[in-house]
Each structure stands twice: as C-alpha cells, then as structure tokens.
Amino acid sequence: MTFLKTLFRREPDPAEALRPLWHRVVALSRDPAWYDECHVPDTVQGRFDMITLVLAMVLLRMEREEALRPGSTWLTELFVADMDGQLRETGMGDPTLGKEVGKLVSVLGGRLGALREANGDVSQMTVVIDRNMAIPGGSLPVATRLAAFAQRLAETDAEAVLRADIAL
Fold it and tell me: CA-to-CA distance for 88 and 95, rounded, in angstroms?
C-alpha cells in the first residue's frame, strides 16, 4: 500500500505558488498607460512585448536575491505554459507549437539579457526597446516608465514580490 501511495502521491506544483505573481505581471503589462500614454500598439504583438518587458523586470529583480531565484524558474515556466495555451487557442497544432513557443522564450531571453546589461539606464533601455519594438513616437516613454518600475521593484522586499504585491 505504501508503494501505491508513493506512486500516486501528488505533490503540489511549485509553480502554483507563483501564479498570483504571473497574473500580476500580466495585469501590469495590460495597464492602459502603456498603450495610451506610452503609445505601445494595442495589438497582440504589442501586448506580448509588454508582457516580456514587465516579466523581464520582475525576473531581473528575482535574480538579484537568493531567496527569489528558485521562484524565477517557476515564473518562467508559467510564462511558457501561458504562451503555449495562447498559441493553442489560435489554432496552432502540435507539429509547430514547440518551435513557436521556443521562439517566444528566445525573445524573452534576449530581452532579459539586453535589459540586464542596460542595468536600469533609461537611454540604454531605450535602445533595447527601439531594437525590439515599433512604437510610434519612440520608446523613451516606455523606457522611462519601465526604469521607474524596476526601481520600485528593487525597493520591494522579497516576500512582497512573492505575494505579487508589486506596482508600476
């Protein structure tokens, strides 16, 4: 009986503890100010771009503190699962799904690396955003707002981040 209990025991998914943070990242990326004041195109691509930028800022915050590092992996897993689900909803099938999700993860990784190098410098962040997004009027408003968000995240304690108690 013990063997069967061990075999069929369901451990809680560690990513589930980060689901509120993932939902908060998505909510912050959908803040109307990105689209109204910063002129990010309110399109599927524009929304994806904002999710990757906001998520990158949160992941960079998480990598700076030992207590948050394990959670960054689970938060990334939630991003992958959500993107997989979104692509499936558009009708994409299994033969190409993995490749497309891989491309999206690669985009996140590239932006994460570039924003890590920018290290909160608005002018460098503007270059990164300009290289990756087409924003009418330029990306300075996005970079400025994103840098302010990064600064607020840096001042937010680890437990608040894990509770998804973060704000723009």
Answer: 11
**Assigned domain for 153 exists:** yes
Residues contacting residue 18 through CB under 8 Å, at least 6 positions apart: 71, 74, 75, 78, 162
| Cα separation, 131 vs 111, whole angstroms | 10
Whether 167 is covered by a domain: the verdict is no
The Cα 69–Cα 71 span in angstroms is 5
In a domain? residue 22 = yes
Name 68's Cβ contacts closer than 8 Å, sequence gap at least 6: 61, 62, 158, 161, 162
Q: Is residue 139 part of a domain?
A: yes
If one counts the domains in the chain, the total is 1
CA angle at residue 146 from 140 to 148, to 5 degrees? 105
Contact, 125 vs 150, CB < 8 A?
no
pTM: 0.90
Q: Tell me which residue range forms the domain holding 116.
A: 15-162
What three-state secondary structure class fits 119? coil
At 95-151, the pLDDT tens digits run 777 788 889 999 999 999 999 999 999 999 999 999 999 999 999 999 999 999 999
